[in-house]
Amino acid sequence: MEDLRFTVQIYNVQKVVEARDPTSISLNLGYHFGFKAAGFYDTELTTDYEPCRWSSNESSIELPGLDGSQGATLFLRLRRQAPESVALLPIRISFNGNPVGESKPSSRFEVTKYNIPRALLNGKEPNRIEFSCSTFNPARLGSSDDFRELGFMLHSVNLQSEAPINASLPYWLDFGNETDAVDGELRGFYAKEPVSYRWIEPAAQVLVSRPLAAEPGLEITLRAVKSCPDPNLRQFLVLSVNGVDVGKKELLDRWDDFRIYNFSIPKEVPRLPSTVIRIRVDPPWIPKSTDYYTDDWRALGCGIDWLRIGGKGE
Fold first, then answer.
1. How many CB atoms lie within 10 A of CB 202?
2. H or E element at residue 141
3. In whole angstroms, what is the distance from residue 45 CA to residue 49 CA?
4. CA–CA dist 124, 72 (Å, integer)
């Protein structure tokens, strides 16, 4: 008989609490946790592999409370894919029991936005978004064997406070996030890459539904990568904010060697209700048919992983 000896170590395991942006609540309806949703079917993937959920005729989502001393904007990314023979009424949208607008989505995902006055926002209690729409039944129409009553497809939601951007309340946009299309209004961006970033066209724009605070010392930080693999082609990242140029910096390295670039926001930049960031790459990379190292023939500016506006050095 042999004696067996064991050593037992006891650890005090604590839950890691992630910091939440107090000015914004975002969720992808396909991959959401902790948000109450009713009237939606199970998660499915579109032909573009985007997670979403079909609605029934009446559906709702509950978001946590949000400090709305300046009001907020509600962003919805949705689509409606129905046979042409079906005449569907607009989707009616209510916020905490109050109508805020209607939507007539196309067959492609699009972002619509709605102004939420501060009087409608709950700071501590949940904020309830309700949808009411007409539906169609694919099986009854003979188009498939799907017997569900289908309304619209919802991809993501964002409730964004209009609080000014400052050092204590920065703005953050992660282009690898499933909700990036509602976290900022994007123009000139290509579809998300599998490794969670986006290429931009030679010029792109991000519209943020928050103003810049009047305080000095704000800056924009981007994590970006050069598009052209040829080290002899120098490319420069050029930024402007609300129509004012804020800097020009050379993109270094290539391929997946991302670097961080900082641009100070001078006091001459006007403080507007929304903040417009224009991103340009000079020159862009336009691959030629003789370029043996790529099969991507798009005109590319640069790749962007994330963007942040806040205090310097944070």
1. 18
2. helix 138-141
3. 5
4. 15
- Could you say which of 96, 128, 161 is where a domain stops? 161
207-223: per-residue pLDDT in tens? Answer: 999 999 999 999 999 99
Please write the tens of the pLDDT for every residue from 265-304: 999 999 999 999 999 999 999 887 776 666 778 999 999 9
Q: Which CATH number is 81's domain given?
A: 2.60.120.260
Contact 114, 99 (CB under 8 A): no
Is 9 within the bounds of a domain? Answer: no
Residue 233 lies in a domain: yes
Of 190, 193, 194, 183, the residue nearest 308 (C-alpha): 183
Distance separating alpha carbons of residues 118 and 18, to the nearest angstrom? 27
Using CA atoms, how far apart are residues 216 and 310, in angstroms rounded to an integer? 10
The residue segments making up the domain with residue 131 are 24-161
> Whole-prediction pTM value?
0.87
Tokens for 287, please give them: 């691959």
Cβ distance 151 to 56 under 8 Å? yes
